[in-house]
TrEMBL record:
Protein's name according to its UniProt entry: Probable Fe(2+)-trafficking protein
Presence of keyword Iron: yes
One GO CC term on file: cytosol
Keywords for the protein's UniProt record, in alphabetical order: Iron
Subunit structure: Monomer.
Family: Belongs to the Fe(2+)-trafficking protein family.
Organism: Providencia huashanensis
């Protein structure tokens, strides 16, 4: 069963997540405010960040940096700047 939420990232109603994908209070906020579509956009950005910066998701510092970038991207309207990557217009 899909659930519809108002996605604060897309600024419209969209399919919500089926379950909480991220732990804690931030995870609850993502579950309630971020659609599947917005989350998949973030996952693509996160993959590019991990690859470009050679991050290790087992490293707490790298995870913290990814979380900060995620918050900026999903909730503060900042696109992720990746060296050598030009988004399609």
């Amino acid at each position: 069963m899909s659930r519809t939420i108002f996605c604060t990232f897309l600024q419209r109603d969209a399919d919500g997540q089926d379950f909480q994908l991220y732990p804690g209070e931030l995870g609850k906020r993502i579950f309630n405010e971020i659609s599947k579509e917005a989350w998949s956009q973030w996952m693509a950005k996160q993959t590019m960040l991990i690859n470009e910066k050679k991050l290790n998701t087992m490293n707490p510092d790298d995870r913290k940096m990814l979380e900060q970038e995620m918050i900026k991207f999903l909730f503060e309207g900042h696109d992720i700047h990746i060296d050598g990557y030009t988004p399609e217009k």
